[in-house]
Amino acid sequence: MKHFLSIEGQTAEQLTTLLDLAIKLKADRGKTSERPLSGQAWAMIFSKPSTRTRVSFEVGIRELGGSVIFLSQNDIQLGRGEPIIDTARVLGRMVHGAVIRTFAQSDVERFAEYGRIPTINALTDQEHPCQILADLLTILEKRGSLDELTVCFVGDGDNNVARSWIWAAERLGFELRIVAPENYRPEASLLQKLTNPKIIITDDITAGADRADVLYTDVWVSMGLEDQSARRLRELASFQVNEQLVARAASGALVLHCLPAYRGKEITDETLEKHAQTIFDQAENRLHAQKAILSHVRN
Fold first, then answer.
1. 258 assigned to active site
2. Could you confirm whether 128 is annotated as catalytic?
3. CATH code for the part of the protein at 12-128+286-297
4. Given 163, 213, 218, 298, which residue is catalytic?
């Protein structure tokens, strides 16, 4: 049984295979009759709201020939306290695969264990693996290669996107600089697992951005942390992607944002608009990357 639960759980070869497949599926979109999900019904179980994740997965499942059932937390008994393992056992007898966007990583892992159907992590508080695969696809398209790559992630270095970037750098061996205040750094328990010496944690935003090939940022207040908004905005105010920071990066550096963007906070309106083509190519690539994941894990 194949699942896609985290970047940590992937090998370099698996990530490369998925990227190659995503490139092919993107090039073949609308030109092929292949429908690897034909006759299959997939459940999308979302405890968190979404724009890009929901639309890209629904479109992707349909383009691959499958049908899709969208289930918010309020649509099913999870919202009334049914254990995830019981929901998994029921759906595992009725659908062919599940895409889950929720809070706890353990919920996705337990669903995969008890549902016994292909399961995809569409976001948890721990990781956002589908996003990072789309990001790598975007960089590969724009640069032509992931060789000698330096990525600078600016902002909250202990969120799900940053963690998935850390595991991507660990698996693929590129240089990653996490630029964050001290109390927004990845946990020591995570860093102790790493072997790639080119994963650097710093609060020096100037040094972090210096000659970087990619500047990457994410929202400062993730879902579920709204009660910390005022403090986070204050403490992260000097970790903004703006034109001064872009000038420190390599010539032609890519600016990426996983969206939604809060202009004037983690990124300026000016910088986002100057790099809008790349950022919205990145958003589109969620569709192609996730079609590759769906094709790879399906029974």
1. yes
2. yes
3. 3.40.50.1370
4. 218
